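Changelog-linked ticket: zinc ion example.
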Amino acid sequence: MWYDGDNTSVGEENCLIRSIVRDVLFLGQKSETADRVDVAVGRDLRDTLRANRDKCVGMAANMIGVRKRIIIVGMGPMDLVMYNPEIVRFDTPYEAEEGCLSLDGTRGTTRYQNIEVTWMDDGWKPRRQRFSGYIAQIIQHEVDHLNGVVI
Ligand SMILES: [Zn+2]
């Protein structure tokens, strides 16, 4: 998800910062289960989010060309990378207007105020936590990407 501004891909000398995929056919495909070796992809996501911080609050791995179930949620100094995230509970729907680094403009969608998520962390330990509000909205947007859903 982004705030606003242009969608220019980031091209830096640092090759870990990957450019943003905007190919809707690619983004429309479902991502595969991540393995422990994919922690390297999580690192690339961290670097890429950092480079796009001004316009981006979260990303999915397919946005940097890797079709694995990995997302990152911008949470300030401690960006949260989730491997194989699953939204196991949700309640209180509302209508949201969202933008995406991979698309132009914004679109309306239904989100849930409260969610509970399970995932594997960077140390490949299983985690389970509840999120609400804006952070919950980012997670829902990025999990949609893993399922090939681009809002
Ligand atoms: Zn997006």
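Closing comment: Example verified and attached. The chain is about 20% helix and 30% strand. Residues 24-146 form a domain with the Peptide Deformylase fold (CATH 3.90.45.10).
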